[in-house]
Amino acid sequence: MTVFDNTMSLGIEVPIDKIERELRQLWEVDDARTNASLINLAVYSEAKGALAENSDVIREITREHACRALLIGLDNDIKETSVRAWITAHCHLAHGQKSVCCEQIAFQLTGHSRGLFRNTIFAHLQSDLPLIFWWQGNLSDMFNESLYRRIDRLVIDSSDWDEVGRQFTEINEAISLVNLVVQDLAWTRTYHFRLAIASLYDDLIASKSLIHVSKVKIIANPKHFTSGLQLLAWFAEMSGWKRTQDLISDQGDLGSYRFSNKEGNIIDTELMLEKGSAPIGKIEVISDGVTICVSREAGGKHLHHQLNCGEHVIDIHGPADSDSSEELLADQLSRGGKNSLFKKILPVFFGMLEQ
Amino acid sequence: MFRLLMSNPFREDLVSRSRPEACTVVIFGATGDLTHRKLIPALYNLAIDGELPPGVKIIGFARREKSDEVFREGLKELNREVSRNGHDEEIWNDFENAVEYHQSEFQDSDGYSRLADRLDAIDADRGGKGNRLFYIASAPEYFDDILEHLKAAGLNESKDGCWSRVIVEKPFGTDLPSAQHLNEVVNQTFEEKDTYRIDHYLGKETAQNIMVLRFANAIFEPLWNSKYIKQVQITCSEHLGMEGGRGGYYDKAGALRDMVQNHLLQLLSLVAMEPPTDLSADGVRDEKVKVIRSLRQWDTPELVAENVVRAQYSEGHVHGNSVVGYREEDRVDPESMTETYVALRCMVDTWRWSGVPFYIRMGKRLPKKATEISVHFRSAPNVLFNATPGETDEGNVLVIRIQPDEGISLRMVSKLPGTTLRLEPVKMDFHYSTSFGKGSPEAYERLLLDSMAGDATLFARRDEVEEAWKFIDHIHRAWHQNDTGQEPEMAEFVAGSWGPEAADALLEKDGNTWRRL
After folding, report:
1. CB-based contact (8 Å) between B55 and chain A?
2. C-alpha radius of gyration, chain B, whole number
3. What is the DSSP letter of B295?
């Protein structure tokens, strides 16, 4: 199915040069609604049928994040250059009282559309509001400097990528060139694991055991290999560890990395990939007499936090991150910030990725 | 306010505030409404958001006989109804395992000894970390007893690098002498740095945003003075009356002591304060207390009559329902002289605010529920568009809505479309709910977390409370203890209206009117 078969959810088709006028008319017919917008949220995809699917995603996201949404679909199979546009609004009752609406403009591009893409999209941003650009799927040649220079925050999901190394090289280049703020949903997927680890290390005994950590083991789903690696990079970076030499494993799906801490102690870490696991299935940190473990069952809504130190035990449940990309994006938008922690762990992450 | 402790390296960037530490929370008055509706749901929501430190234990201390199970069941039942994040059975099960009930009279020494033993056992189980947070949510008449018994049982002492803190609910005294007495008792038991006087208004998102609005935006601060601001109004209106038996408490308190002394003077101080040197608790509170100290004292009956209006509501209609007058309310003295409405004209005698009146009004049985601060700017010069008198008499107004529908709006003047020059006020409006769909944490969530983190910024300090009582006491004395028998009049207004005419007259003297909400 292509987007052309399913445009119902995209709203009214409008001529490109009359988009703003048609949007104004949309509001003139009903003054009982509030038009709200705090960000420009562009969603770009080259997948077939993505435009209609993303319209449903935006309907959910606008429950919590008022935005002007710009959906962009590119069909590379059609050689003729063309662009079509649709407008609609997503309305929700705010606290049961007021209907709050967010505008959506959807563009379907075909053919060689690089120039068309930039000019069409950027002409319809709401002025003074930041542009959050959610790039879905693999980075293509449409991802270039003239695009990312104009983006305030780029959202990607590296778990969707085929060639992770190559694409992170492009991301790294963009960060170096324009100090791009990047939010990888693979990183967002680790949020509650990081929060759980942080809160377990609030414990005095756990805190004292950190310098004696000898082993860290992470289990991740193969699709979410980058989430597992980012979690490991975060743990190592925050602990102040440095990479030494890597262990070579005879198991094909096992990533092993060796670090040393400030005291010169060696820490061996493993990233194990298991089909059927939750995106992150487990992180286990072993020190002298103290084991910290945060785990999640596939499809589970909770994380299991455990600290074992002889008689001193913590065993509780906490919230888990969502498995859905739109909910992760909504969470990420709620947290805001410049994602400086992600930037901080990137050198360690890239180092392990190159292995 | 935004201090970050770095002893746990994994906390970096996860939360931009002080780190809460594991502790045992002991709630006195654990069978009351506050515990069931606010405190436990707040702690549970912190747990569900992953913000509650692991190892936190909760002990409910109250007089009634109850088992742990019955206590937990009651908490769970209400949590299902009121929890902001809904009720997740799995997380609740872990959460309720950390909740215990401790039966004791507040005056029973033995009850406190048993509590001490119980806390020691919990500390041992936790691995020696003996942080304790005592939350006094009981009726005020028990405050002294509880504090004195805590001291006698040695529970006020911090051991081995741990801390022992106390949170005291309002009312913090009923006048200056009683507040001073309570402060003495508290400070004989806990050091001031370990004392957290809660004012839940300060935990509200919009109240916290006042400082951000003023000091993080370059456009406001240059205008934030008597040169550009003509008047400030703080309104707290409630449509409710004395439902649910509140009359008994309210008739002893009144609007002035129940709301103005704490919540509304706190808001006033946030609006009027100078920029603090830093965001530390004392940095902020030093500046707030200077404002309260700078309030011109209405210290004679004549000054009180000139600057303060009190009133009671009479029979009327609210939200389409007919309601009785205050003196006919349940548990209210039929000859009560307690005010259900108060309007004040305050003057902050500082360089910045010289000559700018701050009007405060608070009332029950007003047309709707709303707490707002409006900053009214002076009009533009009387030339060009303002040359015709009356053409643009409505100046710019910045409104900070504290509750409900939290947000900020700015009124300005615009030309009406058309061939003639007609000017009309228009409003730019920012709503938290439409811009940020995610609900804000409840004030108690933020405040409980801050107290576990040792951040007292959003709590009232001893001198703030006492200075506020000093200001309020003059008014209260003039109303109730005037030897001349010439007490300022108790006005009356119809329930469902915006208050008595005398309150309008209070502003008319300055050429101002109350903002219409």
Report:
1. yes
2. 24
3. B
Distance CA B455, CA A5 (A): 58
Phi then psi for residue A130, to 5 deg, are -65, 150
Which amino acid appears at position B379 of this protein?
S
> What pLDDT is attached to residue B509?
93
Angle of the B176-189 helix axis to the B143-152 helix axis, nearest 10: 20
- Residue A266 above 50 pLDDT? yes
pLDDT of B254: 94
Given a cut of 80, whether residue A3 has pLDDT beyond it is no
Name the token pair of A19.
Answer: 């988009």
What tokens were used for A68?
């002007």
DSSP-assigned letters across all residues of B378-443: PPPPSSGGG-STTTT----EEEEEEESS-EEEEEEEEEPSSSS--EEEEEEEEEHHHHB-SPPPPH
Look at residue A32 in the predicted model and tell me its pLDDT. Answer: 60
pLDDT at B491: 94
Q: Determine contact: B431 vs chain A, CB below 8 A.
A: yes
Tell how far CA B129 is from the center of its chain: 32
For residue A294, which of A189, A186, A192 has the smallest C-alpha distance? A192
Q: Report which residue type is found at B481.
A: Q
pLDDT score at A308: 93
Both tokens assigned to A139? 């980075």
Q: Would you call A202 and B13 a contact, using CB atoms and an 8 Å cutoff?
A: no
The answer to whether A40 touches A67, Cβ cutoff 8 Å, is yes
Pairwise CB contact (< 8 Å): A317 & B91: yes
Instruction: Give the pLDDT confidence score for residue A252 in this predicted structure.
Output: 44
Closest CA to B79 of B114, B39, B19, B108: B39
Question: Are B10 and A34 in contact (CB < 8 Å)?
Answer: no
pLDDT of A247 above 60: no
DSSP B276: P
DSSP letter for each residue of A199-246: HHTTSHHHHHHGGG--EEEEEE-GGGHHHHHHHHHHHHHHHT-EE--P
Tell me if residue B263 is catalytic.
Answer: yes
Tell me if A238 and B12 make a contact (CB, 8 A cut-off). yes
Using the 8-state DSSP alphabet, how is residue B322 labeled? Answer: E
Mutate to test the interface with B, among A62, A204, A348 (most CBs of B within 10 A): A204
Distance CA B252, CA B337 (A): 10
What number of CA atoms fall less than 13 Å from residue A299's CA on the CB side?
A: 1
Token representation of residue A52:
């209609």
Quote the Cα angle for A83-A84-A87, to 5°.
140
Please compute the mean of the pLDDT values over residues A226-251 and round it to a whole number. 84
Order of strands, sheet of A312-319, starting from the edge strand that comes earlier in the sequence:
A242-243, A254-260, A266-273, A215-220, A280-287, A290-295, A302-309, A312-319
Q: How much is the pTM?
A: 0.81
pLDDT mean for each 10 residues of chain B (517 residues): 54 66 93 92 90 89 94 94 88 92 95 94 78 93 93 89 91 92 93 92 86 92 96 95 88 94 96 92 94 96 94 91 93 94 98 97 94 93 70 79 86 81 80 69 90 92 95 93 72 94 95 90
- Among the partner-chain residues B22, B91, B435, the one whose CB lies closest to the CB of A302 is B91
Q: Positive or negative, the Cα torsion across A321, A326, A332, A333?
A: negative
B516 vs A: CB within 8 A = no
In whole angstroms, how far apart are CA A129 and each of B264, B283, B385? 34, 34, 32
d(Cα B517, Cα B371) in Å, to the nearest integer? 10
According to the model, what pLDDT value does residue B245 have? Answer: 82
Helix segments in chain A, DSSP class H: 19-28, 50-61, 114-122, 145-148, 164-178, 185-188, 191-200, 204-209, 225-239, 325-335, 340-354
pLDDT at B434: 65
Q: Is A174 helix (H, G, I), strand (E, B) or coil?
A: helix
Q: Does A93 touch chain B (CB under 8 A)?
A: no
Band of the pLDDT at A26, cuts 50, 70, 90?
A: confident
